[in-house]
Amino acid sequence: MDKPNIILIVADTMRRDAIGVYNSNVNTPNIDRLAADSMVYNNAISPSPWTVPSHASMFTGKYAIEHKIHETFSVKGFSLMGKMNGMKYITLAEILAANGYNTIAYSSNVNMVPGSGFDRGFNQFSYIKNYYKLIIEDELELKYGKRKAIKKYVEKYGYLNLINLYRLYKLSYNHYNGYPTDKGGYEIINNIKNMSTNTPFFMFLNFMEMHDPYFEKYTNEPDGLDNLMQNRKNNIKSIHKIKELYYKQAHYLDNYIGELIKFLKDNNIYDNTAIIFASDHGQEISEDYYGHGIFLSDNLIRVPLIVKYNGHGICKKYVSTIKIMDIIKNIAFNEKNNIFDESIFSEVYGINVDSALNYKERKELRRTCIYKNNYKLTVNSDKQIEEFTMDGKLLNIDGSKIVVNELLNDISIFNGSSDFINDFQV
Amino acid sequence: MKREEKYLSLNAKIHIAKIVIEDSIEQFNRQAIVWSAGKDSTVVLNLVREVFLSRNLKIPPAILIDHGQHYDETYDLVNKISAEWGFKVLYAKNDDFISKVNNGKVLIDDLDEDNINELKKINFDFNKKYMDYSLETFEGNHLLKTVPFNNTVGKYRFDALYTGVRWDENDARSMETFISKRNKPEHYRVQPIILFTERDVWDYMFDRKLPVHPLYYSGYRSIDGKYDSKKISDKPAWEQDLDNTEERAGRAQDKEKMMERLREFGYM
Fold it and tell me: pLDDT tens-digit profile of A87-107?
């Protein structure tokens, strides 16, 4: 048989509980049908809670502390652009391209564009415009509409946020591909429908539909601006509304997955195509924190992982999405790399964007967490234990000092020369 | 032929060793020292310690290959030095194998799947029902040293390991470079003292007043498992004729011969 085609689908910002196979209250029939043909990983952990380091990990099989494509207290967000170019590890696409795969990418995430270094090894890397593109390209084009609103906004949130706001504002009227419901997916699928399937291909897709903001349409209500930027202190009512919209987005994205699978079946390549469906991180939607990055809660780092290739079932073992590299090497080259580690880590190095809007109380700290023997322990650079749980249930630290100290020990070794807890023990 | 920088002073070799360690700190994130409490790895440990402390970095952890046959004196020394200097020791141990030893032998069928797969990898003759609990056979060395060592490196994702390899130990090591790459698991070996001779090691140990393993006093030149290390003289190691006798004469010579093949599978 021919080499299998391989598709890596990253549903950006998709929580595990946004998919029917993990949560029967949501409606994602196409992904669920894919899951029925697949190995479904119930305990997949993302190595970082935001796009850039997490994708760098999927592309290299390394943690952020190893590939170093992560934020710091001074370098954040778009300042990281391009760092992947000089990153020392070989990438998934480079390996596959060197072994005869046609390597193609469609990404609607602005962090992964041609030239960013995430395109290394891809024969073709297409960036599908969504609103973020305009924020960067037209920064100087800001004009003078809605003067009063702008003035008030600047006073409240500062100039940089105004630029973001303006783009969103403009687009919400332009109905760009149905923004904000569609954040590029339509164009990704259209591109795929026109592609050739003659040579074995590796295709990377990043869908942004699950990423914020979530709103139906812009209004001139007093909180309309804040709605656009999702820029407010949330209350129970607004949280409820956002969650409803979030799961609706999952259903919307699910249609595109259905179209992709239909395309593969129509071209008689579904059976010989391995599909890895994952996300780079989840999303926290609560009164305490809204967004991603910064923290390591389960809503942020427990992610879907569905692998369609030779067999189906449910796997309860913990697995890191850094192992997507090994999963794909096992598929492409018939290797037998072990994908289960005894200890799995996730880490974050500080706020991931320049504009910290609300949540002033949130702290810029380094955080590392470990999952081991079903325990989870998160510690920060103030040497505070933020979470000690087993399968999501809170545990008492005083009653488990030996375990906690062993986990702290492992974190300290994992952090290596940039360890921040040193010999901290409880 | 043993390879040697015959006319370079020890002082210069120490400088070079420290430059190599500095370079490794620049290049790698997660480093560890392969340490046996023997003389060579203790010299490396001290060099690494000095460089790390001068940069306000904590001393990286040490990996001790624990085949279950170390002398009590070795464990005592490991505990003493690590407590005094303040670094962690990770014991790389094949628990499955060691738990199944009976009268110095292990029934192959008793071993777990991982160990069986490792034996397949080295083309073990499965017509043999038993294997010895020995460090000096090819398969014993592989399961008791190489495998747990590689597992530990992979488990903690170390990217660089400091070792006490020296050119003048034996021919197999005479082609070593300061930094070399290894696969499965992928990492780099950093070998700061390849230029040191056996005499240099002792001179450095005494000059820095480093703790000397008690077995060297009673004549051992090279220390590992308690059933396999032999001494060829009762004089303390450093008082023997280092130039005209073999450092590893007390170790099984078959093993020295199998070195190339051992290294192929990741042995030190």
Answer: 999 999 999 999 999 999 999
